[in-house]
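Practice problem 4.
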């Protein structure tokens, strides 16, 4: 099963709210590069299809995190399979049509200069990171407040936001903390960097 097939399977089995079908149509359309985009320019998932793979990895990491006894019993983290799928699979929609291929000179293994492709950022909608994802999703379907905050703050303390706001968001919306943990686990342990 390809990453695209797995994403669509998880999405369609779990996300049923009004507008979800239209959002999936957009993701599959020629107006979106979601299924071919990288997840970064040179770190985790910096290759064609890296974004969809990262989204699936975050989904599996979040499901595992929320299935821990401690999360369920002590922290009372109980979320629908729909909410879990939404916040994990869609947290990085801000990266749709965000990267473009360019070329630079680099020496090959023989020491000869040649043009090599690389990804660079071309942000045509500079609306932030998590907030842009919330904006895109909200154009198609309604999010709960907790889902919105989970997507908005999925970068956790590695983002550029005010650290007090992040802490307050995590305190008020535990799903935001859980998604940030799943995102970091996927990024650093499952995907790593090109080095």
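Answer key:
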């Amino acid at each position: 099963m390809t990453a695209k097939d797995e994403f669509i399977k998880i999405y369609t089995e779990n996300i049923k709210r009004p507008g979800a079908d239209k959002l999936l149509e957009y993701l599959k359309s020629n107006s979106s590069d979601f299924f071919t985009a990288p997840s970064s320019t040179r770190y985790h998932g910096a290759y064609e299809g890296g974004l969809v793979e990262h989204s699936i990895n975050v989904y599996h990491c979040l499901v595992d995190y929320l299935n821990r006894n401690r999360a369920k019993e002590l922290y009372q983290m109980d979320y629908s399979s729909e909410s879990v799928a939404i916040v994990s699979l869609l947290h990085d929609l801000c990266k749709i049509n965000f990267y473009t291929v360019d070329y630079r000179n680099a020496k090959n293994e023989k020491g000869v200069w040649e043009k090599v492709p690389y990804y660079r950022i071309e942000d045509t909608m500079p609306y932030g990171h998590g907030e842009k994802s919330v904006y895109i999703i909200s154009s198609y379907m309604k999010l709960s407040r907790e889902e919105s905050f989970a997507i908005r703050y999925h970068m956790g303390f590695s983002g550029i936001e005010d650290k007090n706001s992040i802490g307050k968001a995590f305190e008020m919306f535990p799903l935001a903390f859980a998604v940030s943990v799943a995102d970091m686990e996927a990024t650093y342990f499952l995907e790593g960097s090109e080095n």
